[in-house]
Every structure is written in structure tokens, then in C-alpha cells.
């Protein structure tokens, strides 16, 4: 049978993160595992309802909303959990910081201990699992995290599980990684991704090849509006930041994750200032 891809979208209101269950003939594969207690348990319930064993888990990057739920999917780490070595390393480096930062806000919904990848992969590796073939690309910090990967499902139903490389119909998190490397990666990997029918993203509806140009245009627009609001200095005042946020909201009125606009502003501002200083 052709694999069937089931989407689980989290119920928590801020991020609305996606996780995916890839259903093959005899087994299933889960891609990313959500953030909260309730959502990860609901994801597991949805997976269990298919009545097929879990062959493994693929993790796209190290942000908690994509990896924390592994604790409720495979609490003992007794199934293969695949990720880049850099993803595991970043999880190890940031876990305690994320607990301190977010546990009070989420309360009982916060998952207090993470389960780590147990099979590490490298750029270009092929993973054969559940009778399916996935290839993995290490795209480094050119995305919304300091380490990112793309998981490509080969075969008759070609699909790309791209984590947060593209935010579909959503404002974009840019407080980590590098916006300039991200733009470069969108150009670099567009030729590869053109060969895949559907992109399964971390936030928003699935999309396809035109979404690459759309994401690139959004990132460039974000930088441009920072420069417009700050009269070319890329240094915010309270007033200019407010103006910037209002402009982005008006230009993308239907986009979700609106809080991301202000959250990323200082990080991108710093990168633009650094660029002008280097010149």
C-alpha cells in the first residue's frame, strides 16, 4: 500500500504544532512528537488507534514543541528514535534551560524530562523503516533552530517532512538560527524539494513547491520592514518596534502565530546590525 500520512495538530492555542504519523502496510512511523502532556498523549492515542506497531520516531529539530512529547510516545526509549547528532547535542544543551523558562507557564502540561534520540544520522543518510525509505538532509542553522533537518520520504508518495523550514500561513520564529542562512538554504534546497509532492510542515497546513518562494519573500519582507521602521539603522525604539509589528500584522492578516512577530524582532535586528557593522 502507499503510505498514508496522518496529521495531528496540537490543541494548545499558541503554537498549534503539527506531528505526523506515516502509516505503512504493517507498521507506523511518527515524525515529531508535540510539546505538551495532553497533545503527546493524544498523538499516541491516534497512533494506537491504527493498530499497527510503532517502528520508530524521526525528529526534525531540537525545539521542545517538536521533541518533548517523545517522553509519552516512547518513555523508555525502546523504539528507534532517529535524529542528527547535532539535534541530540542541542537537546542536551538546552533541556534544563527550557524547563526553567517554560515549566511554570505550562504547569502540569509541561513534560519535565525528555527522551533522547538513540540512533544518530548524518547528512545524506538513508533510513529504511516500516518498509519505507527516508533520506535525511542536515541543513544546519539555516532554519528556525540552531540545527535543522529535512526528512524526505522516497517512493510513489514522495513527501518532505521539513519541520519549521517553512511556516505555512503562519508568522515565523526567528529567535534562533540565522535568517540570512535560512534564506540561503531556501535557495539551496529548492531544487531538491521540487521533486517532492507535499511538504509536511511544523506549523500550518501542508504545502508544496511554491511555498519555498513564499517563505523566502516573508523573511526578506521581515528584514525590509525592520529597516523601514528604524530608518535604515535596524535599531528599534519602543515606538518603531510597535510600528514594525503593526505593519507585519496588516501585511499578513490571515497568518497565525502573531506573537512571533515581536518575539523574533530583536534577534533579527541584531543580525542586521552585525551585518552593517561588518561592512
Automatic annotation (TrEMBL):
What protein name applies here? Glyoxylase, beta-lactamase superfamily II
Gene3D superfamilies found in the cross-reference section: Ribonuclease Z/Hydroxyacylglutathione hydrolase-like
Q: Which residues form the Metallo-beta-lactamase domain?
A: 16-203
Concerning InterPro entries, the annotation shows: MBL_Glyoxalase_II, Metallo-B-lactamas, RibonucZ/Hydroxyglut_hydro
Which species does this protein come from?
A: Fodinibius roseus
Q: Name one Pfam family in it.
A: Lactamase_B
State the superkingdom: Bacteria
Amino acid at each position: 500500500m502507499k503510505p498514508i500520512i496522518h496529521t495531528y495538530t496540537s490543541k494548545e492555542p499558541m503554537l498549534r504544532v503539527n506531528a505526523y504519523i506515516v502509516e505503512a502496510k504493517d507498521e507506523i512511523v511518527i515524525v515529531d512528537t508535540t510539546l505538551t502532556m495532553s497533545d503527546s498523549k493524544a498523538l499516541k492515542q491516534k497512533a494506537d488507534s491504527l493498530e499497527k506497531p510503532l517502528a520508530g520516531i524521526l525528529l526534525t529539530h531540537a525545539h521542545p514543541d517538536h521533541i518533548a512529547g517523545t517522553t509519552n510516545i516512547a518513555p523508555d526509549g525502546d523504539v528507534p528514535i532517529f535524529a542528527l547528532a547535532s539535534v541530540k547535542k542541542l537537546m542536551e544543551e538546552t533541556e534544563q534551560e527550557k524547563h526553567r523558562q517554560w515549566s511554570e507557564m505550562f504547569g502540569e502540561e509541561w513534560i519535565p524530562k525528555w527522551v533522547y534520540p538513540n540512533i544518530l544520522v548524518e547528512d545524506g543518510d538513508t533510513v529504511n523503516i516500516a518498509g519505507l525509505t527516508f533520506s535525511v538532509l542536515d541543513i544546519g542553522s539555516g532554519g528556525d533552530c540552531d540545527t535543522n533537518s529535512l526528512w524526505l520520504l522516497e517512493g510513489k508518495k514522495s513527501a518532505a517532512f521539513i519541520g519549521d523550514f517553512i511556516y505555512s500561513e503562519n508568522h515565523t520564529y526567528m529567535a534562533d538560527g540565522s535568517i540570512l542562512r535560512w534564506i540561503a538554504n531556501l535557495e539551496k534546497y529548492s531544487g531538491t524539494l521540487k521533486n517532492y509532492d507535499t511538504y509536511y510542515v511544523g506549523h500550518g497546513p501542508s504545502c508544496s513547491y511554491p511555498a519555498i518562494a513564499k517563505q523566502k519573500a516573508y523573511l526578506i519582507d521581515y528584514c525590509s520592514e525592520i529597516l523601514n521602521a528604524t530608518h535604515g539603522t535596524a535599531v528599534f525604539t519602543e515606538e518603531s518596534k510597535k510600528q514594525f509589528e503593526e505593519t507585519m500584522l496588516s501585511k499578513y492578516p490571515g497568518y497565525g502565530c502573531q506573537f512571533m512577530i515581536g518575539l523574533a524582532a530583536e534577534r533579527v535586528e541584531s543580525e542586521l546590525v552585525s551585518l552593517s557593522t561588518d561592512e
